[in-house]
Amino acid sequence: MIRTFYYDSSSDEGIESSEAREMTLENALETFYNLSEEKGSFIGFKTNDKIIQFDWNDDNLWMADIPDPQKRGSFQKECDYDQCVDIIKSAFDNPNWQIPNDFGFMSW
Hints:
single chain; alpha+beta; 2 helices; 8 strands; 41% strand
């Protein structure tokens, strides 16, 4: 089960992380595609044991962020739209999805 949360800074609409909703892959991708490309817009997914977040950074660039509270930091990578879509699809296809090797770790 994957639950989705997001915030669109242009429309000031979204779903709080604490109220994340179950969505199909198609609905999650549609929500991602429709997010405004403005500072503050983000989308996140809660899997069985991970949170994957995508925060709009710049023209066609998103910061993928996977918090790891036990390590007191996040695995991060700047991704383009297509890379984000691939990561989202992987998370939906495999509940035991693993963090890609090319993500760097940033301490909090």
